[in-house]
Amino acid sequence: MSTNEKSKDLEKENRKIKCVKQMKEIMTEYYIEAKTAEQTGKKVAWITSGGPVEPLIAMDVIPVYPENHGAMIGAAKMGVDLCEKAEAMGYSRDLCSYARADIACAPIDGGPIGGLPRPDMLVCCNNICGTVLKWYEIQARYYDVPLFILDTPFCHTEFSDDAKKYVREQITEYVEFLEKVCGKKADEDRMAEVGRLAIEGQRLWQAVLDTTTHRPSPMSAFDAFFHLALIVTLRGTQVTIDYYTALLKEMKERVDAGIGAVPDEKYRLLWDNLPVWYRTRWLSEKFAAQGACLVADTYTSAWCSSLKYLKEDNFLDSMAEGYARIYLNISVDEMAENVVGMIDKYEADGLVMHSNRSCKPYSLGQYDIQKIIQQKRGIPTLLIEADMVDERSFSESQIETRIDAFMEVLKNKK
Amino acid sequence: MQILKQFHDIANDPIGYAKHWKTENQCKVVGYFCSYAPEEIIWAAGALPYRILGAGGSISRADGHLQAYSCSLVRGALDDALTGKLDFLDGTVFPHTCDSIQRLSDIWRLNAGLSLHLDLVLPVKLNTKSAEDYMQAVIKKFYHDLAAGLGVEITPEKLSKAVKTFNQIRTGLQRLYEIRRDHCGTMSSRDLHAIVKASMVMDRNVLAERLSAVVDLLQTKNPKTDTAEKRLVLTGGICSMPEIYQPIEDAGGTVVWDDLCTGSRYFEGRVDPEGNLLNSIGQRYFNRIICPAKHRDCFSRGDSLLKMVENTRAQGVIFVILKFCDPHAFDFPYIKELLDRAGIPSMLLEIEDQQASLEQLKTRIEAFIELL
What we know:
The complex is a heterodimer of chains A (414) and B (372). Chain A is an alpha/beta fold. Helix content of chain A is 55%, strand content 10%. Chain A has a single domain (27-413), classed as Rossmann fold, CATH 3.40.50.11900. Chain A contains 19 helices and 8 strands. Chain A has a 4-stranded parallel sheet, with helices on both faces. A 4-stranded parallel sheet of chain A has the order 6-5-7-8, sandwiched between helices. Chain B has 372 residues and is an alpha/beta fold. Chain B has a domain at 9-154: Rossmann fold, CATH 3.40.50. Chain B starts with a helix and ends with a helix.
């Protein structure tokens, strides 16, 4: 091996995020605990990614995320097979691929981890989409378990006082639901503590994401897609705090040492929508090869998008607003404003949007956001037509051509 | 029948009708989506409630705002708005239902150029006290916002009168459905479809009268019960395609009832004319058969469909589902299985407003009806 090659390898090694190993261990342990819940006597709740997990943690219920499962299925490239199975069950190919993959997994214990542990209850919050309502109804019928729906009225132009009252009342109903299913009273002090940890976790996660304002960016959106798992699944636990504290420290060290996620960072891009799970590496390398780093994204930041509404000293009351006003439950124009803010904050040179067939609330309106961004910031934008899990909707050659053309525009602009 | 022709004319050209009505009456027209729009309040405000269905032509401008995986209702309606076909509207009302309509509302507000835009963010859950309270609050807010937006006062008298008119309309439509169910051949499904479609855009006072007239006419015409042989129930979202009824009837089938947004869900339930009218309007949505974008419990849609099939002694069910309609597509496998278990044959017709091949549709309908 030449000295040159050696130093390249060393550089590549340096670029790797060390916390990854710990993250994998935490997630493995978490899934083992969830899958052995029957033996330990703990209750399992399936919950939507935008759902209020804190009361579950406070009640010692193990939260399990079918959407996280969907992402794993996608990353393991098992999506097409499972989606086809769902289609054979009568589900249209036009439906969300997370839902299709998960529904098909249930009866056969399929997927990368042999299926999710059987739920004792289902908790569905429609702040991310209406799809989860239908998906959870299906699973409630299949598993014959109680379903709680937290209905968060969509915020087109406002979050009315009536809506706030309605969501707040449902949070009380939610706690009552948990008390009934778990057969025990909720502990208010514990609830407050979990709420405090949840807010702290979100702040830390935001701080991690904010390290990418540095040049070169110490991590990319592709890294964020991976490290996101804890703020989604274990929000409100000390494990999450400890992990993000360590990750933040590592990111700061990288900033100090000038280690970037992408060697020779020339272009800084913003990503919109869910990842293309089965092609994250391909996309990451494709952009990195041209010196482009996806420094931030609207997806992973969604889990701290309503931090401003949350109050540590009054978590239960404030979470009504916090859960209703998350990124996906707001209007196209408010989303566009958010994107503009992110472009400025992260000094993005361009915007890459994933038009995701599976996710209408995220994707419909992207054309308008694209126009607003072009108008307000005049940066190049790229729209990729794909799907988060179903590879049949991914045309590599077409997307490659579009990325190349987009990079050309960026190069000419600089 | 001359009286039926009037309905067909309106159903074929609802835009022409509404424009003419507007000029003639010097009143406002408010567009709305779906059967959760409280039309009584719009009518009480002196405006014509106009159901937006999409004119069904080819899409030109909507493609710049909506991906190809949006349903034809959403794309068609936006296209009509952007190409100026709906410029006679003074405002639009968007009841919250599915993800697509939710985003269409934003895109519409940003691009359609209508001054009045009202989002009716209804509860999704229709089974709890808190949701009921919220529903009432939303309807009340709508009442005030609409009055302010149109610059009118909606007096209790006007509202009471409108509630009664709509109850009369609902009763009229229901009677027609019963006549079609019980007296086979008295009225074709194509005719009834035209009546329902026209009902959603017509001057409601005129409509209430004409519906009574049609009911009277048909009742005297054929008082005998004549049972159809191949009895079908349609279920799905919107059906703005009269084309599907002809092949059903040509093949010897009779539609005896439906669970469609442009069908029985439109007229089912009455608003209690006594007491708090706004609350009663919301209460009707609570009691009515639900749209799959709403939630009562996990079984209510399937159960009510089975009951409908039983009550109408239907032998088969046709799912009429718009392509890309997620809520209906998610419910389809479970409801189909429920029907299978009950021994009721069913078929799925996935339709789009801009239907490519009617021939294929026809062949499938014929084959299905032969099976019964």
